[in-house]
């Protein structure tokens, strides 16, 4: 695939920025993790990590929820700056959950079965194998667009397990799996890159 190069900023302080997210997103543009000035960027990316604190969506904390309120506060502040500038946003795993909450959704604080590889069905009729490693699940608001979901469901809860959700009100895309950890040019990696192009830069 050939992409027009964009300016991308990743909200990420850890050492693995250069070995995971940056190489994956380099397929789309020039990548940095400098969030000091967001003006003029084409994409802001929130990454994986600890759970989102349930205080952000007015739920009581489950004993299996392990959050970092300081990280939440920092990322909410960055999110608000990006919204004021109308910047498209991507969330991966924890980042997807943060964007779900900021769009007015909630999270299931614990769900079993989402580790290792599994199948997702997509809105455009495809079936794709992706990687997984999370125990929280997006519960998007009514105005969100379900783009992909686990099929068959990986838990016994009997609910739709959202893997990719588009949040039009905040111009954001949440991807629950980890495309940055998939092999370059794999079906799952290319699918995620195409979603960014279509939902965040094509509308």
End-to-end CA span: 19 Å
Uncertain runs with pLDDT below 50, 5 residues or more? none
* Average of the residue pLDDT scores: 90
Order of helices and strands: EHEEHEHEEEEEEEH
**Assembly type:** single chain
Figure out the total of helices.
Answer: 4
Indicate the radius of gyration in whole angstroms: 16 Å
3D architecture notes:
- The chain is of the alpha/beta class and 203 residues long.
- The chain has one domain (6-200): Rossmann fold (3-Layer(aba) Sandwich), CATH 3.40.50.880.
- Helix content is 22%, strand content 27%.
- It is built from 4 helices and 11 strands; from the N terminus they run βαββαβαβββββββα.
- It has helices at residues 21-25, 69-84, 94-102, 187-200; strands spanning 6-11, 29-32, 43-46, 89-92, 106-108, 115-122, 127-133, 137-139, 145-150, 162-167, 172-175.
- A 9-stranded mixed sheet has the order 2-1-3-4-11-10-9-6-7, sandwiched between helices. A two-stranded antiparallel sheet has the order 5-8.
- Strand 1 (6-11), helix 1 and strand 2 form a beta-alpha-beta unit.
- The longest helix has 16 residues, at 69-84.
- The mean pLDDT is 90.
